[in-house]
Amino acid sequence: MSGIETRAIVDINKEANRFRSSIVLRWDGKVIDAKSILGLSLTLLGSQSYALEIHGPDEVEAKAAMLAVFRKHHLAIETM
After folding, report:
1. Residue 16 burial by CB count (10 A; 0-12/13-18/19+): exposed, middle or buried?
2. How far are the Cα atoms of 4, 51, 57, 76 from residue 63, in angstroms, in the given order?
3. What per-residue confidence (pLDDT) applies to 3?
4. Which residues contact 47 (CB under 8 A, 6 or more apart)?
5. What's the rounded mean pLDDT across residues 70-77?
6. What are the helix (H) ranges across the chain?
7. In this model, does residue 2 exceed pLDDT 50?
8. CA–CA separation, 77 and 1 (whole Å)
9. Backbone φ, ψ for residue 21 (5° rounding)
10. 11-55 pLDDT tens trace
């Protein structure tokens, strides 16, 4: 598989689905729903830097958890 390893994709998706908030990744004019395993699988590349955007009732907790999972897999992420 090109891009990032399968374990990272599964971890990102699993973590995102723990929350009610909307969690999206943005880069280069594109948007990925972090709760979509298919979207993550088809578009995430390890060399990219993504912007994390979270909106909803548990966004503070979701932000911390998502940043942690990206760091765990050594993926570049910034928050919006």
Report:
1. buried
2. 21, 12, 12, 14
3. 56
4. none
5. 90
6. 6-16, 37-43, 59-72
7. no
8. 21
9. -65, 155
10. 999 999 999 999 999 988 889 999 999 988 887 776 578 899 999
Domains of the chain: residue spans and CATH: 6-79 (3.30.1340.10)
Give CA–CA dist 48/4, Å, rounded: 10
d(CA 39, CA 53): 16
Measured CA to CA, the distance from residue 13 to residue 41 in angstroms comes to 10
**Which pLDDT score is estimated for 72?**
93
pLDDT of residue 4 exceeding 80, the answer is no
Which tokens in the block code for residue 30?
């594109």
